[in-house]
Amino acid sequence: MQTRINLIRTLPLWRAAAGLALTVALIGCASTASEIKPHRTGPAPQDPDSFQLTEAVKIPADVRADYDNALHLLMTQQVDQGITLLLNVTQKAPTVAAPYVDLGIAYGKSGDLDKAVSNLKHAVELNPRQIVAYNELGIVYRRKGEFAAARASYEHALSVFPRFRYARLNLALLCDLYLGDLSCARDNYLAYQQLVPDDPQVAKWIADLNTRAKP
After folding, report:
1. Which is nearest to 36 in space by CA: 12, 3, 5?
2. Among 140, 174, 170, which Cα is nearest to 157's?
3. Distance (Å, rounded) from C-alpha 48 to C-alpha 123?
């Protein structure tokens, strides 16, 4: 069986609108990555189905500035400082989901998986359509060995947005490598392949799965 483990992933990109109204916009092609991503020698395939997830709220300008600064710290690998600033943001804007998503990702990056789960769960309580939070929850639950919870999180993201390719691939890999559910793995590999038809690695994984499924 080919190796499929690569835990590198990216932080989300959030865009702030001008003025006091903050629009948190998430662009799918630049926002999040599959938990277990294929090794590549060439460029990644073009995202065939970008999406935008927005959260429009009114917050003070200084809170928005702190949020932007926190994201900069996280993106420059200053995780502890970014977490500190994000905690300050959540105290001043406790009903906004986006900072909790970033906190969850940051805590996961730092290895504090319990705090990662707590913040990501709070994000989806504030915004039940927060598909990035559900995808990240799946990643953290998988790392904790809670495979049923990971599956439920990926499936919840896909129930909101079935063409969310990151959750689709993560679910396929979870079913394949951790749950041994070859039917689930095949269905989700094929669904992912429809979204990203020029991904040669997934085509190889489907062929490998079909070989293993033969009696």
Report:
1. 5
2. 170
3. 27
Model confidence pTM above 0.85: no
Sequential DSSP letters for 157-169: HHHH-TT-HHHHH
Angstrom CA distances, 204 to 7, 35, 177, 189, stand at 20, 18, 15, 10
pLDDT in tens, 41-85: 333 334 444 555 666 677 788 888 899 899 899 989 999 999 999
| Low-confidence residues of the chain: pLDDT under 70 | 1-56, 215
Q: What is the Cα gyration radius of the chain?
A: 18
Instruction: Find out whether 211 and 205 touch, Cβ atoms under 8 Å.
Output: no
